[in-house]
Amino acid sequence: MMKELALIERNRKREIRTIYRNKRLEYEQSKRPPSRREKDAREAALNKEIKEIFQADGKRRGKPDKKPGQDEFLKVYSYIPGTAFDLRYHIPSSWKPQSFNKRKQHLEFLKKFVYPYPLPETLLWASHCPEQILDASGKKGKSPDFVYIRLAKKWISDIVSGQSFYRLNRQFFTKAEAHFFLSSKVPYSDPTSILTLYFYAKSRAHSLNHKQSMMIANVFTVKFQNCFRNNYVDGFLELLSKTPQYPYENSMLGDISDFVLSKINEKGSSFSFNGRTITSIIKLTNEWHEEIRREAEAQRIQQEAYWRERNRTGVKERPIDTSHWRGMNIGQFTYVTDDFTWTVTELKTAQDLVNEGRKMKNCVASYAYNCATGDSAIFSLERIYPVGKIIEKVATLEVFPSKRILIQARGKCNSAITPKIESIVVRWGQANGIKVGVLV
User: Fold this and answer.
1) Looking at residue 351, what is its pLDDT?
2) What is the pLDDT, as a whole number, of residue 398?
3) For 330-376, where are the E strands, in sequence order?
4) Which domain holds residue 389?
5) Cα 137 from Cα 438, distance rounded (Å)
6) End-to-end CA distance of the chain
7) Is residue 407 within 8 Å of residue 222, measured between CB atoms?
């Protein structure tokens, strides 16, 4: 028993000595200067922290996170009502998309938390555009594409609602058209791309192939933006579908579309596509263009007489002056190649348009009112021969000033321009910030 007590006492004293020695070592280490290795470790940690601070300060303010959280996606898709698959109220707070690609991020969020089935991407990107924009004076106003943005949001909501998309949109589509609309893919450029998808689906439903459908969709989007649900537009498309073997071109479709627009805007028009062929419509279109040219010439003469009378009588009333306009204030463009010197000049008077129409044999003289109101801008492309300095007109260009996009480029007699001329037009557009759209 005595031996056991002695062993216990010895162990207790050994533990006390060990505790005392450890405390003594800690005290001695705290008093001695740090070793070289410890100094290097501390300095490396400090430098790393400083570097991170400088990197954070150097980041641009307002730069979006490459992997945004759920708040950004919830805001973008707040217009979509609750669906049968909706999990937006149960998203983990730490969730972030897997991909750095913006397109894939949106598709991942929609598939995971809103609607697990494919959606037309053209509608999605159109719905992201702001409905309100600031004008030059800083006031808020509706976007020029407000109608298309709202339409894209409506169609997205109809798709995810679980109801029949066709039944909810009978005023827009047949069953076949609704099928192609939901399953087709069309490149997105701006909110009007939903019209391209709309016309593409209608063309495919009329058994036209992909190439023909895209050509028709692009031209119709430019020409029929404000009347895409008109019966004349549907009749024109049906006529095109009856002769799919006809060699259509953008310029020809654009000419006939101008003729169709004239019938749409004509009050009390009784025109019909029933019983007509594509060749008879082309003939009517050519006759209409010639009539427009003659009317423009007569209007110019009448306008001159009006202004002479106005100056004589001293009338102060000032209607829209279609004799001249300010234009886009784009200076003359000059480009020199081995063969010619090319120039592009804006036409700013009615007389310039008449002269252009006479030489190019087109109806550009009828655009005087649109130019005066700022809805259109007309440019003339000319080439100058090095020998004799002969000037030859080769193309007439039309631009939408509000969007700075080129929508028409025609040669003589409304013919299609050559690839060489098109390259000059593209170069001119790049130099003046004008997007070259569908050339019709």
Assistant:
1) 82
2) 92
3) 333-336, 341-347
4) 277-440
5) 31
6) 114
7) yes
240 and 122 in a common domain: yes
Note the pLDDT of residue 23.
77
Q: Closest by alpha carbon to 158, among 86, 88, 80? A: 80
User: What is the pLDDT, as a whole number, of residue 200?
Assistant: 94
- 426 and 436 in contact (C-beta within 8 Å)? yes
Q: How many residues does the chain have?
A: 440
Q: Are residues 216 and 296 in the same domain?
A: no
Cβ atoms within 10 Å of 115's Cβ, excluding its own: 20
C-beta atoms surrounding 314 within 10 Å: 6
Residue 19, judged by CB atoms within 10 A of its CB (0-12, 13-18, 19+), counts as exposed
Which tokens belong to 414? 């409304």
With residue 410 as reference, give the H or E element that holds it: strand 405-410
| Pair 290, 367 in one domain | yes
Residues 6 or more apart whose Cβ sits within 8 Å of residue 424: 335, 342, 344, 381
Q: SS3 for 42-62, per residue? A: HHHHHHHHHHHHHHHHHCCCC
Task: Note the Cα 351 to chain centre separation in Å.
Answer: 34
Closest CA to 255 of 232, 212, 229, 287: 287
The encoded tokens of residue 78 equal 């707040």
What pLDDT, on the 0 to 100 scale, is given for residue 150? 92
Same domain, 217 and 292: no
Q: Which helix (H) or strand (E) holds 141?
A: strand 140-142
Put simply, whether the predicted model's pTM sits higher than 0.70 gets the answer no
Q: Which amino acid is at 67?
A: K
List of the chain residues with pLDDT < 70: 1-3, 29-34, 53-65, 136, 298-320, 437-440
Instruction: Report pLDDT for 157.
Output: 92
pLDDT at 197: 94
**Residue closest to 92 by CA, chosen among 112, 118, 116:** 112
The answer on 166 and 305 residing in a single domain is no
C-alpha to C-alpha distance for 178 and 172, rounded to whole angstroms: 9
> Do 159 and 215 fall into the same domain?
yes
